[in-house]
């Protein structure tokens, strides 16, 4: 059944003949509109699902609704979700192209203007698919991901069940391709970068040292370079102004943490420059209002990220906390820079000797020396100790991790080419540790025995 009569276009489109609409053409146009809308929803859901933050996912999980349940199921299999979206979107777009080509041939006669027909059938239709089926829905979904996730959770779950066999095939093929290319790809380790620096930078040893420090910074955590809590100079929130001045004069520090009751409850940081204008005030002066807000970082935060945050926040000190919120120590901008350029000292620093060498292979270490500094003495990477270090930050902590209990004097422990002998210990702390480094020949013999 036809509606109307053929029309001949006027002007620029004079050579196009417009056929009257039939029932099949009207149904086709309606179905084409449905496919375009569904393509837009599927494309939008791709952006919505893969742009969710952890907070938004947690909110969806807590919603306890039907749509949130389906959404969580979809999110639990991200590879299958992506395969489902890609398969559905491609099938819909193919359907749109085929159906639009058929409908334009049914409604329009481009035999007298093939170039114009090509433009409309290919360029114009492709533009409409991209605009209404890809760009606009993705822009909307990026700004409002959660409503889109809820709205599309059920339809996508149904589609996933339908195309699941094809999805598994797609995931399998993707893994095979990735495995094939990953075999050819050579990963560059930090040691490779260090070797490359040794080869390329030869003129200035200091430049080479700095470049190596920058490369190794990505593997150094805050706990590796922090000042442990037992060595931190801090102020009690209830201290009098005179006591504050005494600590400032005695320590020579420019920034001092302030705690209440326990160092696990740090209230803030006192900048010494802030009290200079109040130095003549009496003992009752309320110095607490000068405290600045503390900056807390987790103990496993990478030093390169911490350096960037120091630069962004214009901060020089951070309080290092563990997973339970307890204070482990403090880390400063100077601590990070020392990993790059070496030890930085000024006229107010009092040199603290944490080790001394007894002979070619024997050293005496303070138990509180950081493992990162311990490894520097022997030009070793701190990762060398990862097998036994556990949560230890200091050499004394390493001994406790290896021993599993408080050692006694003269107890001996061995790890790889290090031999640790407990030289001084009390009921609470390991104070001094004698370390013997086995010679290279001894190490080789030991490795041969293990191999046999």
From TrEMBL:
CDD domains xref list: CBS_pair_CorC_HlyC_assoc (cd04590)
Domain CBS: 226-285, 290-347
InterPro entries in alphabetical order: CBS_dom, CBS_dom_sf, CNNM, FAD-bd_PCMH-like_sf, FAD-bd_PCMH_sub2, Ion_transp-like_CBS, Motility-assoc_prot_GldE, Transptr-assoc_dom
Superkingdom of origin organism: Bacteria
One Pfam family recorded for the sequence: CorC_HlyC
Name used for this protein in its record: Gliding motility-associated protein GldE
Family: Belongs to the UPF0053 family.
Transmembrane intervals: 21-42, 80-103, 115-136
Molecular function GO labels: flavin adenine dinucleotide binding
Keyword Cytoplasm belongs to the record: no
Lineage of producing organism: Bacteria, Pseudomonadati, Bacteroidota, Bacteroidia, Bacteroidales
PANTHER family associated with the record: HEMOLYSIN-RELATED (PTHR22777), UPF0053 INNER MEMBRANE PROTEIN YFJD (PTHR22777:SF32)
């Amino acid at each position: 059944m036809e509606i109307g009569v053929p029309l001949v276009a006027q002007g620029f489109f004079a050579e196009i003949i417009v056929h009257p609409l039939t029932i099949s053409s009207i149904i086709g146009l309606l179905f084409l509109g449905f496919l375009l809308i569904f393509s837009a929803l599927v494309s939008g859901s791709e952006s919505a699902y893969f742009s969710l933050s952890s907070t938004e996912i947690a909110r969806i999980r807590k919603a306890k609704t039907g749509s949130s349940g389906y959404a969580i199921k979809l999110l639990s299999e991200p590879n299958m979700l992506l395969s489902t979206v890609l398969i559905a979107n491609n099938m819909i777009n193919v359907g749109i192209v085929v159906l639009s080509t058929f409908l334009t041939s049914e409604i329009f006669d481009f035999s007298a203007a093939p170039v114009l027909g090509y433009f409309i059938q290919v360029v114009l239709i492709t533009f409409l698919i991209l605009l209404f089926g890809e760009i606009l829905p993705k822009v909307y979904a990026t700004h409002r991901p959660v409503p889109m996730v809820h709205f599309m959770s059920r339809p996508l779950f149904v589609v996933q069940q339908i195309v699941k066999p094809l999805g598994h095939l797609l995931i399998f093929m993707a893994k095979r391709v990735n495995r094939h290319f990953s075999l050819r790809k050579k990963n560059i380790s930090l040691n490779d970068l260090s070797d490359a620096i040794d080869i390329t930078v030869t003129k200035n040893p200091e430049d080479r040292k700095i470049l190596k420090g920058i490369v190794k910074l990505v593997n150094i955590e805050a706990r590796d370079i922090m000042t442990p809590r037992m060595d931190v100079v801090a102020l009690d929130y209830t201290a009098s102004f005179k006591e504050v001045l005494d600590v400032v004069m005695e320590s020579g520090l420019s920034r001092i943490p302030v705690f209440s009751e326990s160092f696990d409850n740090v209230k803030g940081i006192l900048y010494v420059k802030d009290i200079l204008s109040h130095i003549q005030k009496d003992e009752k002066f309320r110095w607490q209002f000068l405290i600045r807000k503390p900056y807390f970082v987790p103990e496993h935060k990478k030093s390169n990220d911490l350096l960037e945050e120091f630069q962004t926040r214009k901060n020089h000190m951070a309080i290092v906390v563990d997973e339970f919120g307890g204070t482990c120590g403090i880390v400063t901008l100077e601590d990070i820079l020392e990993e790059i350029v070496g030890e930085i000292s000024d006229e107010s620093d009092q040199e603290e000797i944490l080790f001394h060498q007894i002979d070619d292979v024997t050293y005496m270490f303070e138990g509180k020396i950081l493992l990162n500094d311990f490894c520097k003495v022997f030009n070793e990477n701190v990762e060398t100790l990862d097998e036994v270090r556990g949560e230890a930050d200091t050499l004394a902590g390493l001994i406790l991790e290896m021993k599993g209990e408080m050692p006694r004097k003269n107890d001996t422990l061995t790890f790889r080419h290090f031999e640790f002998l407990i030289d001084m210990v009390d009921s609470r702390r390991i104070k001094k540790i004698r370390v013997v480094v086995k010679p290279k020949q001894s190490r080789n013999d030991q490795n041969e025995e293990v191999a046999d």
